[in-house]
Amino acid sequence: xxxxxxxxxxxxxxxxxAPLYPFGYGLSYTTxxxxxxxxxxxxxxxxxxLSVSVVLENTGQRDGEEVVQLYLRWEQPSVPVPRxxxxxxxxxxxxxxxxxxxxxxxxxxxxxxxxxxxHLEPGAFTLFAGGQQPDQRTRAPSEVLSAxxxxxxxxxxxxxx
Length: 161
Fold this sequence. Notes:
3-stranded antiparallel beta sheet, Immunoglobulin-like, 161 residues
């Protein structure tokens, strides 16, 4: 095998065609609603970590568990990257009619791209939070929230942070 690229070989690199049942797809006996997605800071230095919080509410009549997933998308990377990348997830049990605020951290290394070494680049990013992947054709009964953030500073190798 001489071509080691993942283009067209895994759901992360399918281009515009999404898989029928993507990662995280499933059924539940209750419904969930996401709200109040907050990224802090919205503009961060190249080596800084991002703090994320989101509120998850069980809007159904039964106890339920939801797998909250965070995905990162590079808006204009200098090299090929996945359409989006899973950067955090957590299974949360929520009683009916209750809400819980979840906090996550996205470290700088999760924004790194491979250019003969792991490299951090400035630019615009979008973070997605929800019970499924962004832009799914086969929809689960929960939405996906999104928020943008910007990384500033000069590009540098990851080990330089």
